Amino acid sequence: MARIDLDLAHSYVAHPQKDEDYALLPLNFTFEDGGAYALLGPSGCGKTTLLNCISGLLRPSQGTIRFDGADVTEASPQARNIAQVFQFPVIYDTMTVGENLAFPLRNRGVPADKVRERVGRVAEMLDLSSSLDRRASGLAADAKQKISLGRGLVRQDVSAILFDEPLTVIDPHLKWQLRRKLKEIHQEFRLTLIYVTHDQTEALTFAEQVVVMSRGKAVQVGSADALFERPAHTFVGHFIGSPGMNFLPGQWRDGAIEVAGRRYMPELPPQTLAALQTAGSFKIGVRPEYLQLALADHPQAMPVRVERAQDIGTYWLVTATVANGTGEAPATIRARLGTEAAALRPGDTAWLTAFNRHTCFYINEELVP
Ligand SMILES: Nc1ncnc2c1ncn2[C@@H]1O[C@H](COP(=O)(O)OP(=O)(O)OP(=O)(O)O)[C@@H](O)[C@H]1O
Ligand SMILES: [Mg+2]
User: Fold this and answer.
1) Omega before 243 within 30 of 0, i.e. cis
2) Nearest ligand, CA of residue 44?
3) Which structural domain, as residue segments, surrounds residue 332?
4) In CATH, what number is assigned to the domain containing residue 255?
5) 49 C-beta closer than 6 A to ligand 1
């Protein structure tokens, strides 16, 4: 396993001029040896491009890649000693399941007894033990994809294992099992794993560190907790969470924060206050989970007009609008509340406390520290 240092950019265009010409904007990042990472972001943000630069399937148009300090920018995927699992199964139909799993080892001249032992172990982890002698051609797509995963995991000497949305073809229940399995395998072998997905649940359950990408840029790298509590960019706030973070326009006026024509004076660290004061206008970010119903005379309470209150099973999702006082369309706000929300009706005025220790502030879409 290896530490992977990236200092690169990639454009599929011959002479890139503007940011939009880059599939990957200049990126400087280290994947630590033995870490479990996810690359998370919407379609087209550059996840596969980044993964292929790491594996050597793609040479970045600028910069370098180092494995344990050694420059591998020019090295082939074989020379980099990478295992890669793709979105769709890549297996040999004419071979048995066992032969498919053994292939990456036999190909490298691993002794037969060692191959047997390792194939047995991986088959056991993936519940493939009973089908080792079956021909792969007759198997369903998800069984074939399990074999692909197994082929990725069978070698112990790889620098890293890269997964590009490997569970797309797998049915939801098995998906959940395999995700857990991958996590267990990681904990047992401490392999460097890099896992591409556009599914936040998948990324957040699997990875220790999630690299959130947007339009060729890594906008934040952090644990599930950090991405939830302190999104570094409004994009991360929107993208992570279900539903995502609420954002409301705010102004600094005469020593207080003004939102939708009302004044608030939450307790904030002095440097945050100073930054808000300097900026003048900003956004307030608050997660649906951290909004609470309050009484009208609560100093931090914000009046909202209830649009809808839905019973989601474990919580109530309340959609409301905040009049913004500027004549513009009112901002929508979503709150995850308890059974106290059952009494809310469309058109009601409710009071929500939007300011608490979880509230984040954004200037030019970036988090105020
Ligand atoms: N071979 C290519 N030639 C030209 N442009 C490409 C090529 N491959 C990808 N792109 C472009 O580069 C950008 C990043 O693509 P990439 O495939 O890395 O995104 P992704 O995050 O993996 O998306 P998805 O979730 O859909 O797989 C996109 O704008 C895409 O159109
Ligand atoms: Mg992709």
Assistant:
1) yes
2) 1
3) 244-367
4) 2.40.50.140
5) yes
Residue 23 CA, ligand 1 centroid: distance in Å: 7
Do 206 and 263 lie in one domain? The reply is no
Q: Which of 40, 47, 57, 164 to mutate to test the pocket of ligand 1 (most atoms within 8 A of CB)?
A: 47
Residue with CA at minimum distance from ligand 1 atom 29:
44
- Of 196, 216, 238, the position where a domain reaches its end is 238
| Closest residue by CA, ligand 1 atom 28 | 44
Contacts of 235-244 with C-beta under 8 Å, sequence gap 24+, read: 235/365, 236/212, 237/285, 237/287, 237/360, 237/362, 239/40, 239/41, 239/42, 239/200, 239/212, 239/214, 240/200, 240/204, 240/212, 241/200, 241/287, 241/288, 241/289, 242/200, 243/288, 243/317, 243/334
pLDDT at 106: 95
Run means of pLDDT, 10 residues per run, the chain, 369 residues = 95 95 97 96 96 97 97 95 92 95 94 96 92 93 91 91 90 85 85 93 91 96 96 97 95 92 91 96 97 90 95 96 76 95 96 94 97
